[in-house]
Amino acid sequence: MTILILLVAILALIGLISWAKLHAFLAFLLVTIGVGFAFGLAPAPLMAAIYQGLGDTLGSVVLVIVLGAMLGKVVADSGAAQQIAVVLIEAFGTRYIQWTLMVAGFIIGIPLFYNVGFVLMVPLIFSVVYKYKLPAVYVGLPMLAALSVMHGFLPPHPAPTALVAQFHANLGLTFAYGLLIAVPAIVLAGPVYGRRLRHIVSVPLLSFAVEPEPERVLPGRLNSFLSSLLPVLLLVTVLGLQALLPPHTQLAPVLAFLSEPAVVMLLSVLVATISLGTALGKSIASVMEAYTASAKEVALILLIIAGAGALKQVLVASGVSTDIAARLQGTGLPPLVLGWLIAAIIRVCLGSATIAGLTAAGVMLPTMAYSHANPNLMVLAIGAGSLLLSHVNDAGFWLFKEYFNLSVRDTLRSWTMMETIVSVVGLVGVLTLDWLLKLSVGLVPTHIG
């Protein structure tokens, strides 16, 4: 009966968002209240669980997501993202243009949220297409594959950041594991698969072929790279020092403080405010206006994350979480595969990668205490599942179709297949990394007999 109620709840969530066109936050709240009553919670404990879920979830992610949006905004508005792409194209030329744009998408995708990165980079892709007379899908898909993987796998993007908090994973380790898995996923879904798409005829709409800013008004090259990648550089430096130094040195508390994701993002935003803001002649007021706009852009995402947190807490408060865990374990599927599968099913039904990931996390969270699955890898497994089979119910599908002026059939062959390759390769990468980690601590036999 427990699993049946949970299944009905997920179907109701899909129905309210897809068919009734209700905002995801309202849908989460309605479903959460219904689930609470169905599992026997009285009104007072039910509302207490909802308040706790909202507060706990937002409290752990709001700083990272908002600061990440601010960093992405200043990187985009200053022209640093365009400068990075220009530098890479000049360095490697058109012979390796797919790989060049893939690397550009990889770097730019770290600070920029997907939609911002897409709209910002598509004019650059089109300028390359028109200048060198190259097929648009063949050229553009690798960069967009990189942006998509960053969005689905790695903090400070909203869904991965929320999943790290929900599973009590380590942000630094999740980021490091995510990079290891992201590289083969991007390579296979981007340049390798993109070679099969050279024959797709795409004439991008001229209205989208915006002329890039002249290089003289862009920030310096070193400045662009360092400011955009500062969160990664800080994390790598702090984690490296923590690994090299004894754990009980006087620097240990300082390093622990500096390794906090919110602190890393705050320092990065403060540096970028100067390096990509005031140092380029912008006033503090104009930079702050841009930050205000970026916070507004992620407000609705934060509400969706809060709604998912409320559903998770109601499942815990109702006492059925252990029952759910036992029944899911009874399927015989490894927890990482199960997390990927649940996210994938919701993604196919609903279209939103963010909602798919957050809903799957709420379902899988009770199993973590019993399965001993690696929480960092669970974040990545669910993130990979949330990217599977983007089709006509996904806004990203239509964004790609319209900008590249493709038929639905060609969009399915290019965009949908790219997202599916990313998802499947991501799962394979997670399972391989899980096996290697278990092997390293002796949990997997090295021979038979």
Describe the structure.
- This protein has 449 residues and is an all-alpha fold.
- It has one domain.
- 76% of the residues lie in helices and 0% in strands.
- The protein has 19 helices and no strands.
- It has helices at 2-18, 24-38, 43-78, 80-92, 97-108, 114-132, 136-153, 158-166, 171-194, 221-244, 252-258, 261-275, 284-317, 321-329, 335-350, 353-371, 375-385, 395-404, 408-440.
- Helix 3 packs parallel to helix 12, helix 8 crosses helix 13 and helix 17 (375-385) runs antiparallel to helix 19.
- The model is unreliable at 445-449 (pLDDT under 50).
- Keywords: Cell membrane, Membrane, Transmembrane, Transmembrane helix, Transport.
- Pfam families: GntP_permease (PF02447).
- It is a multi-pass membrane protein.
- One of its GO terms (molecular function) is gluconate transmembrane transporter activity.
- The chain crosses the membrane at residues 30-51, 58-76, 96-129, 136-154, 174-193, 225-245, 251-277, 298-320, 340-365, 377-400, 420-437.
